[in-house]
Amino acid sequence: MKERFEQGLKEAEQPFHGWDFGYITDSGRMQSGVLCWSYDEMARSCMKDAKRMLDMGTGGGELLSSLHPLPPYTCATEGYAPNIAIAKDRLSPLGVNVYPVTDDSQLPFADGEFDLILNRHESYNPREVWRLLSEGGVFLTQQVGWSDCREINDRLGIPMPSDYAGWELDFAVDQLVRNGFHIWDQREATPVQRFYDIGALVYYLNTIPWQVPDFTVERFREPLWEIHLEMERHGFWEVQQKRFIIGATKNK
Q1: Which DSSP state fits 33?
Q2: Burial of 106: CB neighbours in 10 Å, binned 0-12, 13-18, 19+
Q3: Rounded Cα gap, residues 182 and 160, in angstroms
Q4: Which of 5, 7, 34 lies closest to 231, judged by CA?
Q5: Cα–Cα distance, 127 to 230 (Å, whole number)
Q6: Do residues 70 and 89 lie in contact, with contact meaning Cβ atoms separated by under 8 Å?
Q7: Fewest beta carbons within 10 Å, which of 33, 47, 125, 163?
Q8: Residues 29-62: pLDDT tens digits?
Q9: Buried-state track 143-170, b at ≥16 Cβ within 10 A, e below 16
Q10: Ordered strands of the 30-32 beta sheet
Q11: DSSP 8-state symbol, 124
C-alpha cells in the first residue's frame, strides 16, 4: 500500500500544458459529474448570429478551436504566460488573434468591438465586458464558485482562499445587472468530482495553485496518506464541485 502511495506521488510529477487535464481524465483517474447544461452547445447557439467574437481566457485554445466554424472576426485573450504560445500555435491557423492580458479592466479592444463574448472559468470585469460589447451583444460565462471542492481544503486543514469569498451565482448576477446587463439565463450545479488515486489528486492540486496556495507533497504528506487510505478502501475519494452559468445581454 505504501508503494502505491509513493508511486502515485511520483506519477503526479508531470508537466501541464495549455488547459488540458487529459493526463488524469483520459485514463479515468479523475472524473467529474455531468452538468445540467452544456457550455459548448450554448456557446455554439450564441455563435449562430455572431460576426465578431471574443473568447476570454482561452487557455491553450482547446475549447475555442473545437467551436468551428468561428465567426469571421474572432479574438482571444489569455493571462497565463505559458499558455500564450500554445494558444497562438493552435488558433492562428484558424484566423484567431491571441492577446496576452494582465488586467481584466483594461483589455486591448475598442468600445463595442464584439457582439459576443465567451468566458469559461476566467475572471472578468463586468464594466469592461459591457464596454467591449455592441448594443444587444451577448455575454456567456461559466464560472467556478468559491465553495468549489472545499472538501480538499477541509482535509488538508487549509481555509478556502479569501480572495474569492462570496463568488457565487447570486453575487455575479447582481454585479452584471448593476452594470447594465439583462440576464436571460442563470443556473448553478454541484456535480461530484472523483479521484481514483492519490497521484491524480496531487497532479490536480499542482495545476490549480489557487485552491491550496503553496501546496507541496511534503507539507501535506500526512493528510494525503489518509486520503490515499480512503481511496484504497472505497476505490475513490470524492469532492463536490460548484459551477454556475450566466447568459446576459447588454441593454440597448
Answers
A1: P
A2: exposed
A3: 31
A4: 5
A5: 46
A6: no
A7: 163
A8: 999 999 999 999 999 999 999 999 999 999 999 9
A9: bbbbbbbbebbebbebebeeeeeebbbe
A10: 30-32, 192-195, 237-240
A11: -
